[in-house]
Amino acid sequence: MYTVCLVEDEIALSNVVKAYLERAGYEVICFTKGSEAINYIGNKVDLWILDIMLGDDINGYDVIKAIREKDENVPVIFTSARDQDLDKIFGLELGSDDYMTKPYSSKELVLRVNNIIKRVYKDKENNIITHGDYNINLDKRIVLDKEKELKLTTLEFDLLLLFVQNIGKCFQREEILSNVWGQDYFGTDRVVDDLVRRLRKKCSKLKIESVYGYGYRML
User: Over 90: is that where the pLDDT of 12 sits?
Assistant: First the structure.
């Protein structure tokens, strides 16, 4: 689920936009003051929606400057009651991705959010699998537990990938051998038990269930 931060001092509008975004499948975090938004920078946010004029002496321009000091790539949409080209140009120069003039349609805002999310995160979606706290990068073949990289062997990574791509499916040991070691492997299937044990130890938050007399599955 993508997280959107909505920085808007009009409470009624904020509630409406929040409801539309949540209906579209986003997690929404709302702030009415620029200082609150700046204090939140550094947490996981996939897109910011910033009103220019806020409920304190910090405006949307101040917030985006603080955001860009931490993250040059996270998308930002500016909103404002002022329909002036200078505001739009200034916002773009500061690194905003879009600009909407109030009053705007909440439906249109959601469509713009959808389009930006698809454009910015399309490649990441294709190459990264998220399972709980674990992010599995298929291209780099690395696994992160939140921000910490886990050192997995080739076989451990392949076993993890097999499980996370087939949540709930029960695999016989022979199936795991075929998928992880390859069909040319002729050793004992007990190597599967050892590999599962090692993966459980390195990725302790995984729920890998033993199915007596059969094999394993991940829940």
Answer: yes
198 has pLDDT over 70: yes
Residue 171: give its domain's CATH number.
Answer: 1.10.10.10
Q: Is 31 in a helix, a strand, or coil?
A: strand
Q: Which domain holds residue 207?
A: 132-218
DSSP 41: B
* Angle between helix 11-23 and 106-127 (nearest 10): 40
pLDDT interval class at 126 (50, 70, 90): low
pLDDT digit string (tens) for 53-65?
A: 888 889 899 999 9
Q: Domain count of the chain?
A: 2
Q: What share of the chain is helix, strand, coil (3-state, %, to 5)?
A: 45, 25, 35
Stated pTM of the model: 0.57
CA distance 89 to 68: 17
Give the three-class secondary structure for 71: coil
C-alpha to C-alpha distance for 17 and 34, rounded to whole angstroms: 18
**CB within 8 Å of 207: residues ≥ 6 apart:** 218, 219
